[in-house]
Amino acid sequence: MRALEIPDPELASLVSEAAKLATDYWASLEARPAYPVTSGGETSRLFDRAWPDEGRGRAVLDDFSAIAEHVRPCTGRFFGYVAGSGEAVGAIGDFLASVLNQNSTSWRSAPAAIAIERVVVGWLAEAVGCGGFAGSLCGGGSTANLMGLAIARESLLPANEDGARPGIVYVSEQAHMSIAKAVSLLGLGRNNLRLISVDENFRLRTDALRDAIARDRDAGKTPLAIVASAGTVATGAIDPLRDLAEIAKMEGLWLHVDGAFGVMAALAVPEMFDGLSLADSIALDAHKWLYQPIDCSCLLYRERDAARNAFSHSGDYVKIFNQDPEEVFAFFEESIELTRRFRALKLWMSLQYHGRYAYREAIIRDLRHAQLLDNAVRAHPQLELLAPVPLSAVCFRHRIKNNEAILKRVIARGRVYLSNATIHGRFALRACFVNHRTTPQDVDEIIHEVIAAADELNA
Ligand SMILES: Cc1ncc(COP(=O)(O)O)c(C=O)c1O
């Protein structure tokens, strides 16, 4: 037998045992706590093992149930952060992608994987009203934001004599931390991120933006890009995309849209994303509001050549000998990644299995769930809504009790999981709906659990 080879009957039984673990797990989800009640020490001790000299064989599958008890289950009652729910056909697609073990980097290394990725990227672009945009899949919204700003830098910012590239990026003060990280990683310069104030709906104020750009120009600085949020992480606010596109055009700046949380909702409520197609680049996360298993993110760009300009640094070893225009295509020329997972397969399978209407319906249900909670909070005398709810994130608080203590108790009770945000300096309880498993009853549980946790604080 060759090294690492598994005889056929054993392999078949491993695969079917793994499939059984998966289906049993999915069937058990609703009975699981919203978050594992475990201490970090307990979890670390449980899995602290040496790599055995002799293999354990099929017994490794026995670890699955312990692992499943020590991770966040994708139940319909997990409302923290922007945590997608991991659709099952997508998971099967991920498994089959690993079986094929393709390097989705260039046509030569994986023809069908490349063809499929280009098609699914086209579906995503069309779904958000940006048909004709090119793009590539990547691991997360943070990477997509970094790549979007890297393309902006290469397109608009010549290096100065010592190779430095100071360029100013404008975002709302509600923008995700990945933008600050990208500005720092790209060497755009310390202090070159301008946090622009927001209006009462947490949307970037265009008057403040115009002033900031003018001030920077007067000071001899170089504005580079505006990053609009299409769904801020705290409240789901959508910046005024059309106005920002106009300002970007007038000022000769790049417009990148961070749509990691919200942009996929354009499939259901396109009118809320007016102006999105005027962006130069857009980050969106299919592992958030398209319910795909982690990881599955996408950067869309208007000009494929701009992405190539940023990422095409081909070495000899990747030279493509065939000159057929289709076959010279390479994602490594448009992405940070060289070796790339076949992420497109899960999208290909999951989006076709369910169809476009089912996805639109799932997003509409999430939006409705957010409105249900919004109404329930407003109707409850002890609770107060802290921000408008344009998409599916709801920020609220208990009027009297300590909300931080409430949150800890809610999580410890294990029925629902909420996270937090800071709204006008106040601690907010936050529920976010990007979960195809959530039901209206699960939404009711949020109010029930928050009030029960608050009552416990008296005891
Ligand atoms: C608005 C926004 N941008 C970017 C990100 C980062 O995405 P990822 O966690 O996939 O890197 C998030 C994550 O929640 C987000 O909400």
From TrEMBL:
- Do the record's keywords include Lyase? yes
Its keywords, alphabetically, are: Decarboxylase, Lyase, Pyridoxal phosphate
> A single Pfam family, by name?
Pyridoxal_deC
Enumerate the cofactors the protein uses.
pyridoxal 5'-phosphate
Determine the domain of life of the protein's source: Bacteria
Say if the entry is tagged with keyword Lyase: yes
UniProt similarity note: Belongs to the group II decarboxylase family.
Protein name per Swiss-Prot or TrEMBL: Glutamate/tyrosine decarboxylase-like PLP-dependent enzyme
Which organism is this entry from?
Kaistia dalseonensis
